[in-house]
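Researcher: Let's do a round of design. I'm pasting the structure tokens now; please hold your answer until I've finished.
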């Protein structure tokens, strides 16, 4: 499976009230080490779960591999993940107005637990040079600040991941890796 190129800009949120009236989705995710040059992440949202391998390259563009996981497997793995390697957040989606085609959506994350009070907004772009009208509710851009990446917030382990036997086939199905 080929990696998807994710082009994403990230900002602090100056006015969290922008999500008033929007329904959010709770996300739990844990980081399990590295597979090659990629961080291994397990994410659960409601009754859905995924395994993701995401490169740690600087800038807005990064490689990503992702596949669905059985919820029971993801829950077992997250339950065994040390708390310092996890983050919890509620994600809100807000259409980006006046941005042309293809339509864009802001993903606004309200972090919980030890990161309570942190709000980040991300927007995924179709190309790196796409012009973007920034809404007034945004704060500073932190795209190039590695401290605001989810892997950094979760203190992702930097050693090679020890792959659970049940998880291994899902990881192998994603490769070969660049």
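Researcher: That's everything. Go ahead.
Model: Designed sequence:
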């Amino acid at each position: 499976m080929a990696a998807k190129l994710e082009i994403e800009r990230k900002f602090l949120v100056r006015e969290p009230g922008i999500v008033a009236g929007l329904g959010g989705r709770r996300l739990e995710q844990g980081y399990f080490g590295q597979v090659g040059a990629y961080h291994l992440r397990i994410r659960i949202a409601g009754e859905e779960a995924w395994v993701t391998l995401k490169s740690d390259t600087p800038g807005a563009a990064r490689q990503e591999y992702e596949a669905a996981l059985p919820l029971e497997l993801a829950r077992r793995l997250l339950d065994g993940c040390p708390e310092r390697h996890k983050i919890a957040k509620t994600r809100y989606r807000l259409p980006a107005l006046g941005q042309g085609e293809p339509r864009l959506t802001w993903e606004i994350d309200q972090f919980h637990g030890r990161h309570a009070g942190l709000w980040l907004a991300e927007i995924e772009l179709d190309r790196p040079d796409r012009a973007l009208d920034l809404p007034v509710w945004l704060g500073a851009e932190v795209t190039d600040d590695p401290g605001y990446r989810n892997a950094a917030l979760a203190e992702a382990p930097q050693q090679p991941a020890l792959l659970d036997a049940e998880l291994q086939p899902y990881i192998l199905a994603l490769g070969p890796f660049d």
